[in-house]
């Protein structure tokens, strides 16, 4: 049974139980139930109503997320992979720049965009800005054929997680700049997958709430990617502080 039907079934069962309980009170007692019982019944009804609405809202959000990140096979079949990738980026209200072009294609505040990107049918994408969009692991498939992608900005993307980072190996031969700052679902384990991006020159890992011991993580990243400039702002535990603590521990052991 699907999740929406499950919520509906549960709510119907609870409604029946509440009706039965109300009938028992009305038939078995001449006087109305005490105030605290009536209050309890009222709160119970409201709780189940709110639970049902929240459940439906969650399912609607997940359905919308899956719909937005579906593979654009139809567009790719008729217009090619470059147009399909461009259309996917714009549909998520992102922006991009083609190879050899200075113009950026972006959506406006109302989510509208120019269709002039269709004039670049066989031109790959060099830079993509997906900051604050709902791109996820599944949607990344729409970009996998962009082997000239040099810059990918994912700042503040709520669906970018460790699995997403593991899939970035598709761009290991081209990607030079990556911004994954302010992504709440990234953990220390996911950052280890970035070791495959040997050509990376700039990496922004600022303000990742899922990172424990950020100072040590930065040290590991610098060892994995020695040629990469790492930006890590928004942490109390900076690299210098970690080094000072290590020196203090060594002195104590002596």
TrEMBL record:
SUPFAM superfamilies: RNI-like. Gene3D superfamilies: Ribonuclease Inhibitor. Required for the assembly of the mitochondrial NADH:ubiquinone oxidoreductase complex (complex I). Involved in the assembly of the distal region of complex I. Belongs to the ATP synthase subunit s family. Interacts with incompletely assembled mitochondrial NADH:ubiquinone oxidoreductase complex (complex I). This is Distal membrane-arm assembly complex protein 2. It comes from Pundamilia nyererei.
């Amino acid at each position: 049974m699907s999740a929406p039907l499950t919520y509906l079934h549960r709510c119907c069962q609870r409604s029946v139980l509440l009706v039965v309980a109300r009938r028992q009170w009305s038939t078995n007692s001449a006087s109305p139930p005490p105030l605290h019982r009536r209050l309890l019944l009222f709160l119970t009804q409201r709780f189940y109503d709110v639970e049902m609405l929240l459940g439906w809202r969650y399912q609607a959000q997940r359905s919308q997320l899956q719909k937005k990140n579906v593979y654009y096979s139809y567009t790719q079949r008729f217009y090619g992979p470059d147009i399909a990738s461009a259309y996917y980026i714009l549909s998520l209200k992102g922006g991009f720049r083609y190879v050899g072009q200075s113009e950026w294609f972006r959506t406006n505040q109302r989510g509208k965009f120019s269709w002039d990107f269709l004039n670049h049918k066989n031109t790959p994408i060099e830079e993509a800005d997906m900051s604050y969009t709902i791109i996820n692991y599944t949607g990344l498939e729409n970009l996998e054929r962009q082997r000239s992608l040099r810059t990918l900005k994912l700042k503040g993307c709520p669906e970018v997680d460790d699995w997403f980072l593991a899939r970035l190996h598709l761009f290991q031969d081209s990607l030079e700049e990556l911004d994954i700052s302010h992504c709440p679902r990234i953990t220390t384990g996911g950052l280890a997958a970035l070791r495959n991006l040997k050509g990376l020159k700039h990496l922004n890992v600022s303000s990742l709430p899922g990172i424990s011991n950020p100072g040590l993580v930065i040290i590991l990243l610098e060892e994995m990617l020695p040629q990469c400039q790492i930006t890590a702002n928004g942490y109390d535990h900076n690299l210098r502080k970690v080094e000072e603590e290590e020196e203090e521990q060594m002195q104590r052991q002596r």
